[in-house]
């Protein structure tokens, strides 16, 4: 069996900490068994290792998340890249084509897909591994996992089996699905033995390839990636699951939660405050502060405050999910991003005239990490070394830089830097197009960059 974790959307319900690049699964707001902060993707990857599942695991993601995944999980994570963020049907179609044409797996290979940010106990993964046996024994087109509900939720979809579960290991025939019912309808569903749909799907690879062929879509990865924008932007549930003739569900009785809102996330946080925070006579209140300014709350209850370079949220916990509708209307560039080499924080952007802008950033490179060897078409840069030392390359010439040094990088000049120790840089960009896309990379690893310098 192959297991693919879907690392997709931006998690706008957790604005302002999450955005199109730093999605909710990368926020380090929960703690592991050693009380160290970890993200949701780090938690699930750790659980996969503990349950001997890493050798069958992949992550499906977009190019914008690659640096964050490598930064948090290491550079050897198997990735299946989407050309563009869409919905779960295009993503899973691409997964099937990759496993078929790149990994050369056969039609009877069982593939299980699940969200990367499921907050579950370890025995969830033992139940998940049983899906391979269930799909083979039942001859079903799809096998799902359904969570035994703990209350009549209106936030989740429901799976309604033909009959109530007869035992902890049984799989049940699925009768129908219901999306986000009212409280009254949810209570009726619970009485019928309905289960929460936790977004876990298992299928034989050949079945899904056949579904693609029915839709006249290519099963070759490169061909499907080239036509990716032609695929309907629709969920896998609507396009495949609800149209399938034979679907079974495996019940799971254990802790499961979607940490997709500030309300649910703060329920699992060990700390009521992060960053420069003073909580005074405040109950059931969480404050997460990524700014250099202190935040003080006095005498408030049931509130979440989240502050980052992208904005500040103050919300009643039970209404915090509404922020998604507001944040969806904003198209500002992220002001803070984590990368495989460290992070950067946009300090200021100023438009000088119609053609020229100035952007100021703080860059932090972890010791031993490096920026790629690159150049820009539309901007020049000036770097001031604030702290630490680094090896700096400009047009194939190498030199050591230290605090107080200022280097000028003209438009089109090739440049890279490696942090000898933790390195902080203030970068000032000036040009007509100050976007991350204006980067032409010539080499990624420092070894390859040094080879280019020696050959020059």
UniProtKB/TrEMBL annotation:
<dbReference type="InterPro" id="IPR005835">
    <property type="entry name" value="NTP_transferase_dom"/>
</dbReference>
<feature type="domain" description="Nucleotidyl transferase">
    <location>
        <begin position="4"/>
        <end position="270"/>
    </location>
</feature>
<dbReference type="InterPro" id="IPR054566">
    <property type="entry name" value="ManC/GMP-like_b-helix"/>
</dbReference>
<dbReference type="InterPro" id="IPR029044">
    <property type="entry name" value="Nucleotide-diphossugar_trans"/>
</dbReference>
<feature type="domain" description="Mannose-6-phosphate isomerase type II C-terminal">
    <location>
        <begin position="339"/>
        <end position="442"/>
    </location>
</feature>
<protein>
    <submittedName>
        <fullName>Cupin domain-containing protein</fullName>
    </submittedName>
</protein>
<dbReference type="InterPro" id="IPR051161">
    <property type="entry name" value="Mannose-6P_isomerase_type2"/>
</dbReference>
<dbReference type="InterPro" id="IPR011051">
    <property type="entry name" value="RmlC_Cupin_sf"/>
</dbReference>
<dbReference type="Pfam" id="PF00483">
    <property type="entry name" value="NTP_transferase"/>
</dbReference>
<dbReference type="Pfam" id="PF22640">
    <property type="entry name" value="ManC_GMP_beta-helix"/>
</dbReference>
<dbReference type="InterPro" id="IPR001538">
    <property type="entry name" value="Man6P_isomerase-2_C"/>
</dbReference>
<dbReference type="Pfam" id="PF01050">
    <property type="entry name" value="MannoseP_isomer"/>
</dbReference>
<dbReference type="InterPro" id="IPR014710">
    <property type="entry name" value="RmlC-like_jellyroll"/>
</dbReference>
<dbReference type="GO" id="GO:0009298">
    <property type="term" value="P:GDP-mannose biosynthetic process"/>
</dbReference>
<dbReference type="GO" id="GO:0004475">
    <property type="term" value="F:mannose-1-phosphate guanylyltransferase (GTP) activity"/>
</dbReference>
<dbReference type="GO" id="GO:0005976">
    <property type="term" value="P:polysaccharide metabolic process"/>
</dbReference>
<feature type="domain" description="MannoseP isomerase/GMP-like beta-helix">
    <location>
        <begin position="280"/>
        <end position="326"/>
    </location>
</feature>
């Amino acid at each position: 069996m192959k297991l693919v974790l879907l690392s997709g959307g931006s998690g706008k319900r957790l604005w302002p900490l999450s955005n199109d690049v730093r999605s909710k699964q990368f926020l380090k707001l929960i703690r592991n068994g050693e009380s160290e902060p970890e993200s949701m993707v780090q938690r699930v990857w750790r659980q996969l290792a503990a349950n001997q599942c890493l050798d069958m695991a992949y992550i499906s993601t977009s190019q914008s998340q690659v640096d964050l995944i490598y930064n948090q999980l290491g550079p050897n994570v198997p990735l299946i890249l989407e050309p563009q963020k869409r919905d779960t049907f295009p993503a899973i179609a691409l997964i099937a084509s990759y496993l078929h044409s790149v990994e050369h797996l056969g039609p009877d290979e069982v593939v299980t897909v699940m969200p990367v940010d499921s907050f579950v106990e370890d025995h969830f993964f033992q139940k998940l591994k049983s899906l391979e046996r269930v799909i083979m024994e039942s001859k079903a087109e799809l096998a799902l996992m359904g969570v035994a509900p703990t209350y009549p939720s209106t936030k989740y979809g429901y799976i309604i089996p033909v009959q109530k579960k007869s035992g902890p290991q049984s799989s049940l025939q699925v009768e129908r699905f219901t999306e986000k019912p009212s409280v009254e309808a949810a209570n009726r569903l619970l009485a019928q033995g309905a289960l929460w749909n936790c977004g876990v799907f298992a299928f034989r690879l050949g079945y899904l390839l056949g579904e693609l062929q029915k839709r006249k879509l290519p099963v070759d990865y490169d061909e499907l990636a080239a036509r990716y924008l032609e695929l309907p932007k629709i969920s896998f549930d609507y396009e495949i699951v609800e149209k399938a003739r034979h679907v079974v569900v495996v019940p799971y009785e254990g802790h499961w939660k979607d940490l997709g809102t500030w309300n649910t996330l703060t329920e699992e946080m060990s700390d009521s405050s992060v960053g420069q925070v003073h909580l005074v006579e405040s109950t059931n209140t969480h404050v997460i502060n990524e700014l250099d300014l202190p935040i003080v709350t006095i005498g408030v209850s049931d509130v979440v405050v989240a502050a980052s370079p992208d904005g500040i949220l103050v919300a009643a916990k039970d209404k915090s999910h509404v922020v998604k509708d507001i944040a969806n209307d904003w198209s500002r560039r992220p002001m803070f991003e984590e990368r495989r080499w460290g992070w950067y924080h946009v300090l200021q952007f100023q438009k000088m005239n119609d053609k020229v802008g100035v952007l100021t950033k703080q860059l932090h490179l972890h010791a031993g990490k490096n920026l790629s060897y690159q150049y820009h078409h539309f901007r020049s840069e000036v770097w001031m070394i604030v702290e630490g030392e680094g090896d700096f390359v400009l047009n194939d010439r190498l030199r050591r830089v230290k605090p107080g040094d200022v280097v000028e990088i003209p438009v089109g000049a090739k440049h890279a830097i490696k942090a000898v120790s933790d390195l902080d840089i203030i970068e000032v960009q000036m040009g007509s197009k100050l976007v991350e896309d204006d980067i032409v990379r010539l080499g990624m690893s420092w070894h390859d960059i040094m080879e280019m310098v020696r050959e020059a």
